[in-house]
Structure formats: C-alpha cells, structure tokens
User: What shape does this take?
Amino acid sequence: IPLLHRASAMSRRPLSLYATPWTAPAWIKSNRDIRGTGALRGRAGDKYHKTWANYFIKFLDEYAKHNVTFWAVTVQNEPRARLPTFPQFPTISYTAEQQRDFIIHDLGPALARSPHRTQLLILDDQRVHLPQWAETVLGNSTAAGYVAGVGVHWYLDDIVSAACSLGATHKLFPDHFLLYTEACNG
Assistant: This one.
C-alpha cells in the first residue's frame, strides 16, 4: 500500500490498478490445498462460491480503507493452468462454463451490490482459449452484462495467430475490450 501511494503521487495521471487472484483458501477448493489446480468446491450459487465472491469485495473494501481503489479485477489468474511440472502452483481451475456461472450467480451480483465501481475481466489466460472462452462467457447476456473485457496473456502467441484469436473475439464482442494482462520474457 505504501508503494502504491508513492507511485500514485509520482504519476502525472491517476493509476488504473487491477487485481487478479491466484488461489482461494484451501477449505473452498476441491483439492483442499492452496497449491495445485483444484476447482472451487460445489457449484455456482452455493456457499463456497458466494464466500469466494465475498472475498473479492472484502479485498476491495480493505484497500479502499487505505485510499487505494481498483479499476478492475479478473475472475482468476490462469484458470486453465494445469502445469504438472509445477505442482506447487497456486491456482483455481475453471472451465469457461464454470467461470460464466460463477459470474452470473456470485461474483457479478456481489460486485454490482458493492460500493466499488470496479470492472470485471474474464479469462486472464493464454489467447489460445479465444474466441471459445469469450463465446461461452460473453455469449450469455447475463454474464456479459457484468463483464467489461477479456484479459489475455502472451506466452503461447506463436501457437495461434492474432487474427484467429484476438481479431475473431473482437469481431464477435466489439463492446468488450481485450487487454494484455500478463507477459514476460523467458
């Protein structure tokens, strides 16, 4: 928080911060561990999903107490990450259908009811999942109403062309922005 305050003070314009979760508490995950690729326990609309959605709001509430606001949150960092070489990788596994249903029944309504004007991004993973991921989530009008854009990582860009992934997604959903949310070399 002090670093965010310093960066904000140094910036000539307001910072647009976004946040993305790595994992939920172990008791909410199907594998009962913060590590590994367990999914959220149960089904969208149940106590586990509602609790996880409330974690998002509590996160935003706590930062707001320190005068830090977030422009956006993503539903999950790398929801399709299944890395057998990294069994300690903390993540929650989602299919596009599970993410859509979590948005419809839990996270979307929780954000809408909250005092935060934080936008919601879907996917936040490799563009090889496009446009199918967007079709599943944004193809549902209720889910699409809660979502502002699609977060994309660039690690596997050599596998699928930008025209087949980003271009096709933009053509299908021109009112939802595409934003590269993670990238590095190596």
Summary: The chain has one domain: 14-182. Residues 129 and 165 are 8 Å apart (CA to CA). Residues 14-182 form a domain with the TIM Barrel fold (CATH 3.20.20.80).
